[in-house]
Every structure is written in structure tokens, then in C-alpha cells.
């Protein structure tokens, strides 16, 4: 396929993806009230339990509408994910060999659930983060939280943890590509633990030890699982290479 044909195909698939996202945004706009309530629930429940006055606040006249558009875009991307993921896949797959397609499908099929698991873990941590942060306000004071900033905090945390959960998949991909060995990944475990601890500390603004632990535990488990898979793959590759050399030596001996 010529470059011009590639560009035309890319444009067509980009247009289809954009249409899917716009349609998803329309559906997402209808769900914004539900999202507002879900966002506010941790704040209201904790405020009620601690007898505090806390809720979401919209500062300007257009703040609520702007936030609805942001939420609609996010929901549109999520709702239309099957459409644009399929378009990306169909654009890439013609250039892959059969075994490469299976590897790519396996990596993508693993990365998506792990990303969603990371988002779920981040969301489960939100009530604890809210509880700790609200506890810093004086007992008789009211705490009206900027809704846009609160939404950005949720999205940043969910995206950051979701991406962090798929980093082990990238390590395994690099190993399967022959770029890095399992032993090399294992040697860096101390650095990995330190980086995970730093990330958990930054991702949980409350600096709560329990929240950091619940975030660190699955990330470290995934890291060492990636190490195990990489080492097993290295051994498989070494056996395959050894067999190839033995067959080659046998062929040369018979030819002589």
C-alpha cells in the first residue's frame, strides 16, 4: 500500500472514530447528573457521618455547563471505545505478521482490563482521600469544594493509576521483543519499589499510609508477575535457540 493510500485510510478511520466519540458525548451528556451525584457521594457521606458541612461548589455562571462538557467528552471517549479501538486495530493489523497479531491481541487484551482495574483501585481510594483531606478543616467550618478541581483530581488519579497498572505489560512487551531480559528487570526491583512508593505518595494527596499501601500492593504484584513472565520467556527463547543450534550442527555434520 502506498503512502497516499495509508494517509487516506488513516483519515477515514480518524473520521469514524471522531463520529463515534461525538455520538458517545451525546449519550454521555444525558448521564452527567448521575456522574455529579456519584462524584459528590463520598463528600456528602463523609460530611454527614462527621457532622460537617461539605459539598461541591460551582464558582461561575458557566462552571456547571463547562464541567458537563468535560464529563460528556470523557464519557464519550469511554462509550465509543469499541469503535476507535477497532479502528486503531484495523489500521495496524495489516502490517503485522500472523504471530505478531496474536502477540498484539494478547497485550491489548491484557492491558485494557489492567487499566480498568487501576481506575477501579483509584476510585476505591477516593473516599479515603476525601475523608483525610476534609479532616484538616476546622470542626465548625464549611468546606465547599470546587467541582471542576475535584473532577480533575478524580480524573488525574484514575488515569495515573490506570496507566501505572499497564506499565508491567510494557515491560513484558519489551522482553518479548528482545529489548530487555527478565534478569535485567529483576535487578531493578529496588528502584521499582522506590518509584512505586514515590508514585503512590504523589497519587494519594492525603499522604495516608493505608491508601498508599493499597495502591502499592497491586502495582508491586504486577511488577513481579511481569518479572516472572519475562524470565519464563527468556528460558523458552534460550531452549529454542539451543535446539536451533543443535539442529544446525546436525545438518552441517550430515552434509559433511
Question: Can you characterise this structure?
Answer:
The protein is mostly helical. The protein has one domain. Helix content is 82%, strand content 4%. It contains nine helices and two strands, in the order ααβαααβαααα. The protein has helices at residues 3-29, 32-49, 63-79, 81-92, 98-134, 147-176, 182-187, 189-203, 209-255; strands at residues 53-57, 142-146. The chain has a two-stranded parallel sheet with strand order 1-2. The two termini are 45 Å apart. The mean pLDDT is 85.
Brief summary of the model shown:
With 256 residues, this protein is mainly alpha-helical.
Task: Record the SSE blueprint.
Blueprint (H helix, E strand, L loop, with lengths): L2 H27 L2 H18 L3 E5 L5 H17 L1 H12 L5 H37 L7 E5 H30 L5 H6 L1 H15 L5 H47 L1
Parallel strand pairs: 1-2
Helix pairs in contact: 1-3, 1-4, 2-5, 5-6, 6-9, 8-9
Task: Name a few traits of the molecule.
about 260 residues, mainly alpha, 9 helices
String of helices and strands: HHEHHHEHHHH
**Residues in helix, %:** over 70%
Question: In DSSP terms, counting alpha (H) and pi (I) runs of 4 or more, how many helices?
Answer: 9
Distance between the termini: 45 Å
Q: In terms of structural class, how would the helical and strand content be classed? A: mainly alpha
- Which strand order spans the largest sheet, edge to edge or round the barrel? 1-2
Binned strand content: under 5%
Which stretches are low in confidence, meaning pLDDT under 50 for 5 or more residues running? none
> What about the largest sheet?
2 strands, parallel
What is the arithmetic mean of pLDDT? 85
The total of beta strands comes to 2
Radius of gyration: 24 Å
**Number of domain units:** 1
- Shape field: flat
